[in-house]
Design goal:
Number of domains of chain A: 1
Strand content of chain B: under 5%
Shape of chain B: rod-shaped
Distance between the termini of chain B: 68 Å
CATH class of chain A: Mainly Alpha
Structural class of chain A: mainly alpha
Helix content of chain A: over 70%
Oligomer: heterodimer
Order of helices and strands of chain A: HHHHHHHHHHHHHHHHH
Number of strands of chain A: 0
Number of domains of chain B: 1
Distance between the termini of chain A: 60 Å
Order of helices and strands of chain B: HH
Radius of gyration of chain B: 21 Å
Number of helices of chain A: 17
CATH architecture of chain A: Up-down Bundle
Strand content of chain A: under 5%
Number of strands of chain B: 0
Number of helices of chain B: 2
Structural class of chain B: mainly alpha
Largest interface: A-B, 55 and 39 residues
Chain lengths: 406, 48
């Protein structure tokens, strides 16, 4: 086969691999965002105030483990590259920890709270960090060509949200098929983690890391201190970390969806379906914003998307009990977020290049983990804000269960 | 009820506005073609 043909073939394999991997990753993580808080208050019967503390503290711990993980990735030298080996090494622990999180132990409330704290932290590390980071960094490691990176980033965004649509749309019927209640959660999340990890392993098999370090430094293992210095000197890294922080804070507020459907709409709208529309809208948004980002640039296109999301929020604020307005607002909010989701990974790859140009050292791991650090803090803050607001509004898990008829 | 509305609608609205401000500050994209050319040059020099 000629060289250009081989190049086209391997790029196609990268695209398919990224599609499988991103879809698989979100099978476990997106549904967690929707149901974890609800599971903890309703099935584990932990108070909203305790859940608020668990989510916030865990995310902060998780944010720091991200930096460690990024440094480990930058120090990884193997035939498979920097990121791909981690997808293999962390596969089994990720599935086991996810299954453990959805076991309701026969303990008192304090015991259950401690159990939830420990198991959630295991999931946060093995699934949300040790798998997420290599998956995200792959976009920057597969190719250095801007055009291909943007395409890979958009494929990543599209298929990860498609994964979220899938898990959310089928969550209620599949959980019911597994017997509903705690057992439904346990089997559903274990199955989704298993399929998700399988798809990420397929991604590992199909892709190839081609972006090499500076030939002069290729043999060296980078020290954490050196990498950290390089990253904090990169002004756009701070900028990106802030964007990631706020970008995670917004979706983590979607944890309030179940409560909104029950309290404001009296259970007339299914949470899973609403979340599926939300993720479906993001998927459509990513596609709609492809020409926009090519025309006006990644950051500008994302800003336009976020403006549309803000308009959607205003619409719902004005008519909070109107179901048609909820659907319209959901379309606005989700399509708008799509403008950002498709571009984020490619924006980070630009930050990596800028860091290398400015400081002479290339560190994908720490750059992505720094952004992920921001994302974790944002998600922790968002979850805590939602749970704290619910605690302030005295949301009672038992009253909620009765309303749901579960 | 107000708490849920604030969590579901109010917080995402404020978040979106803050992200827009940060995105408007993210100007690295325009520098990338020049940066890439320079990095490529450096790599060639290093491997020569």
């Amino acid at each position: 086969m000629s060289e250009p043909n081989m190049k086209t073939m391997s790029l196609r394999r990268d695209k398919v691999g990224i599609a499988f991997g991103s879809f698989g990753y979100n099978l476990g993580s997106a549904v967690l965002m929707t149901y974890l808080m609800y599971f903890l208050t309703d099935n584990m019967l932990i108070s909203a105030a305790s859940v608020s503390v668990i989510l916030f503290v865990s995310r902060i711990i998780d944010a720091f483990t991200d930096l460690w993980m990024g440094s480990m990735m930058d120090r990884t030298k193997s035939k498979m590259g920097k990121a791909r080996p981690w997808l293999l090494w962390m596969a089994a622990p990720a599935v086991i920890s996810m299954a453990l999180l959805f076991v309701v132990p026969p303990l008192n409330e304090t015991g259950r709270t401690i159990y939830a704290f420990i198991t959630y932290n295991l999931v946060a590390f093995f699934y949300l960090t040790a798998l997420a980071l290599p998956m995200n960094a792959l976009v920057a490691l597969l190719t250095s060509e801007t055009k291909h990176r943007l395409v890979l980033s958009q494929i990543f965004g599209f298929f990860s949200t498609l994964g979220a649509v899938f898990v959310n749309f089928f969550s209620s019927p599949i959980m019911q098929a597994f017997g509903g209640g705690s057992m439904g959660y346990f089997y559903y999340f274990t199955l989704m983690a298993l399929i998700g990890v399988g798809l990420m392993l397929l991604c590992m098999k199909l892709t190839k890391e081609r972006v090499q370090d500076d030939p002069e430094k290729a043999g060296e293992k980078m020290k954490f201190r050196t990498g950290a210095k390089v990253v904090v000197r990169n002004k756009y890294w701070w900028n990106a970390m802030g964007i990631y922080l706020m970008t995670s804070l917004v979706p983590s507020c979607w944890a309030a969806t179940a409560y909104y459907c029950i309290y404001w709409l009296d259970g007339q709208v299914d949470t899973g379906h609403l979340m599926a529309l939300l993720w479906g809208g993001i998927t459509a948004g990513i596609l709609l914003f492809v020409p926009v980002s090519r025309k006006v640039g990644k950051a500008n296109s994302a800003a336009i998307g976020l403006a549309i999301q803000a308009i959607g929020s205003v619409l719902l604020w004005l008519a909070p009990t109107s179901i048609p307005m909820l659907w319209i607002s959901t379309v606005f909010r989700s399509v708008g977020v799509g403008g950002l989701s498709g571009n984020m990974n490619a924006m980070m790859a630009d930050v990596v290049d800028y860091g290398e140009w400015k400081n002479g050292v290339r560190c994908e791991g720490l750059t992505y983990s720094g952004a992920s650090f921001g994302a974790k803090v944002g998600a922790g803050l968002g979850g805590a804000v939602v749970a704290a607001l619910l605690a302030w509004g005295s949301t009672s898990p038992t009253r909620q269960s009765r309303r749901l008829g579960r | 009820m107000t708490a849920i509305k604030l969590a579901f609608v109010g917080a995402p609205f404020i978040g979106s506005c803050l992200i827009i401000i940060m995105l408007l500050m993210f100007r690295v994209e325009k520098l990338i073609p020049a940066i890439k050319a320079d990095l490529e040059e450096r790599r060639k020099r290093a491997s020569a």
